[in-house]
Amino acid sequence: MAKYAVNQLPVSTLLAQVQSDQIAIPELQRPFVWDSIKVRDLMDSLYRGFPVGYLITWQSVGANLKGGLSASHQQILIDGQQRVTALRAAVAGLPVVMKNYSQKRITIAFNPLTEEFATVTPVIRRDPQWISDISEVFQSAGSFKFISNYMQANPDVDQDFAAEKIDKLSEIKNAQIGVIALSDDLDVETVSEIFIRINSKGVPLSSADFAMSKIATYGDRGRNLRKLIDYFCHLAIAPHAYGDIAENDKDFAESGHLQKIAWLKDVSEDLYDPTYSDIVRVAGLVGFTRGKASSIVSELSGRDPETRRVDVERIPGAYDKLEFALDSITSKYHFENFIMTIKSAGFISSKLVNSQNALNFAYALYLRMRLDPTLSEGERKKITRRWFVMSMLTGRHSGSFESTWEQDMKRITQLGAAEHLRQIEESELGEDFWNVSLARSLDTIRTSSPYFLTFLAAQIHSGSRGFLSKHITVSTMQEHSGDIHHVVPKNYLVKAGFSDRNEYNQVANFAITETSVNISIGDAAPEVYLARVRQQIETGTLKLGEIVDQQDYEKNLAENALPLMLESVTAETYPDFLHERRRLMAKFIRDYYTKL
Fold first, then answer.
1. Does residue 434 sit within a domain?
2. pLDDT-based confidence at 65, cuts 50/70/90?
3. pTM of the full predicted structure?
4. Percent of the chain scored above 90 by pLDDT?
5. Do 547 and 590 have their domain in common?
6. How far apart are CA 405 and CA 355, in angstroms?
7. Residue 235: strand pairing partners
8. Pick from 588, 585, 559, 592: which is nearest to 345 by CA?
9. Which string of DSSP letters, residue by residue, matches 85-144?
10. Quick one: average pLDDT of 510-527?
11. CA proximity to 585, closest of 565, 564, 563, 561
């Protein structure tokens, strides 16, 4: 069976099919990223008969058309959105959605005498030799009347030449554009591969892109759900855009969905700023317990996951599940409680999270557990915290995570979240992990390492103070200012022969400290600068930091997982120090995990 068909459509037919929703363009409700110069160049290419590239569509089963009709084979445009939007703007005279979600006309002018296209300007509008808006040519009943009006305004021009060029301009509506129509029985992965092979730029389309396109095909409901995802993600990072959306997208505002996310206009939190791909994946887990974004496409197409057969009667129920999931995800109460839960584990900043997928699954897990009436809110939060930290430490949501997500969600449904987590802990977080593997994983120079980030989160969770700080906590410095300091100074090590950054920049040689303390330490060896702290404890005269009590000093070392041997560390014993520090950091993380 052929995977695709290649057709040639006149511009007028293409635009008519878009207008009637036979070809769906979800991106029409997203900001138009082309500038007017690109629109001008597209019209010039069509005028001169140059190729403008193929459009790629994918057949969508059970999509809703305007007027409540259903199309068994509606085409979703998955490549060429900007070109078609440009055609709608220049040829049909329709407005486009700009970055602030306002609608704006992009008007292209044409000079029949020079055969030149240009973005309209006030000067061009006043020049009778220019057709200031080419859409008027295509919308006029016939070119004869338009040519007559042009000649009346330009009696001195070569009328035959001008008429010929205006006729040639009007023929753009008959210019052929190639459309590659992919079959509806292709899975998302195959569609993506075909797209990459056909597209000369090789720009990959993710399964989330297909899901977003599919969501938008279900009439007004689908378009609004797709906008709900888009706007939620946009407002999460740009709360000020709320007014633009409310003012410029009246249909969405009147749908009731905008009110659901209005709370974002007053939020500056950036711990979890999901993209539309993230939201699609979380919705798949919450609504369908499916780990792959492509599964949403199958569900919304009415495909039974067991029999693989399409039943259009399943589609309305699938959209019900999707809307329920999206309402849960975008709920102010749910979202803020989830953020507080993650922060309560010590991950108070996005700088401490190097896995967006870990956040995605943790949020989906939290929302799924809200469907279990046997769990209290406290139990949900405890499981969410432990799961998130477990996934950070084990890299559970890296690599081929989609399959793991689906397996985990099935096990959670069968066993319950607490029991499934317990089994994972038993198999992956045993004595060997805590005593050997974790310390070995801390043998790295990457401050973005999930193990080092988890150590910092553990310090924040336990209220640890910065190295040699009496009052200032790691949490405070993480939120404001603080240095990652070499416990055994870099320059001291370099002078002693440790010239390789892989030696002196080990995370086991790092501690969070106040800038003033860091400056005071300078390049001194530990025995030198800690001798000053010793003297400070004995005399009460502040030399370095503010600690003046021996027990407090030892407590501070423990808060930073630093061994007492630090006072005697030299270049010769530096490797032994790193080994012992890694062991203490691993123990610190283990103690933290057991308390979550």
1. no
2. very low
3. 0.84
4. 66
5. yes
6. 14
7. none
8. 592
9. HHHHHHTS---EE-TTS-EE---EEEETTTTEEEE--HHHHH-TTSBS-THHHHHSS-HH
10. 93
11. 561
- Give the residue-averaged pLDDT of 440-445: 97
The domain of 59 spans 4-198
Are both 333 and 392 inside the same structural domain? yes
Looking at the structure, tell me whether residues 408 and 495 fall in a common domain.
no
Count of structural domains within the chain: 3
In this predicted structure, the answer to whether residue 315 has a pLDDT above a threshold of 70 is: yes
Between CA 237 and CA 91, with CA 248 as vertex, the angle to 5 degrees is 110
In this prediction, residue 194 has a pLDDT band, given cuts at 50, 70 and 90, of confident
Residue 530 pLDDT exceeds 90? yes
Nearest alpha carbon to residue 214 among 318, 132, 114, 141: 318
Question: Which of 198, 225, 259 corresponds to the end of one domain?
Answer: 198
Cβ neighbours of residue 10 under 8 Å, at least 6 residues apart?
A: 173, 174, 175, 176, 177
Evaluate whether 568 touches 574 at the Cβ level (below 8 Å).
no
* CA pair distance 588, 79, nearest whole angstrom: 51
Which of these, 227, 178, 185, lies nearest to 79 by C-alpha position? 178
H-helix or E-strand spanning residue 453? helix 450-462
Highest mean pLDDT among 156-160, 543-547, 556-560: 556-560
Please give the distance of CA 199 from its chain centroid, rounded to a whole number. 23
Average pLDDT, stretch 92-119? 88
Residues paired with 109 in a beta bridge: 118
Q: At what angle do helices 377-394 and 356-369 cross, to 10 degrees?
A: 160
Q: What is the mean pLDDT of the chain?
A: 89
Q: 243-257 burial, b if ≥16 CB within 10 A, otherwise e?
A: ebbbebbeebeebeb
- Same-domain pairing of 234 and 101: no
Among 139, 119, 115, 1, CA closest to 49: 115
Whether residue 317 is predicted with pLDDT greater than 60 in this model: the reply is yes
Measure the CA–CA gap between 503 and 494, rounded to whole angstroms: 9
- Summarised one tens digit per residue, pLDDT across range 2-13 is 678 888 999 999
Same domain for 253 and 169?
no
Helix (H, G, I), strand (E, B) or coil at 256: coil
203 lies in some domain: no
* CB-CB neighbours of 225 under 10 Å: 24
Q: Are residues 57 and 89 in the same domain?
A: yes
287 and 188 share a domain? no
Backbone angles phi, psi at 96, to 5 degrees: -115, 160
Q: Rounded to whole angstroms, what are the CA distances from 124 to 11, 93, 108, 129, 318?
A: 26, 18, 10, 8, 52
351 is a domain residue? yes
**262 in a structural domain:** yes
Give every CB contact of residue 546 below 8 A, 6+ residues apart in sequence: 469, 470, 471
The span from the CA of 94 to the CA of 45, in Å, is 20
Can you tell me the distance from the alpha carbon of 382 to that of 375, in angstroms, rounded to the nearest whole number?
11
The Cα 293–Cα 403 span in angstroms is: 11
Domain boundary pick from 138, 173, 198 = 198
Examine the domain organization and report whether 99 and 129 are in the same domain: yes
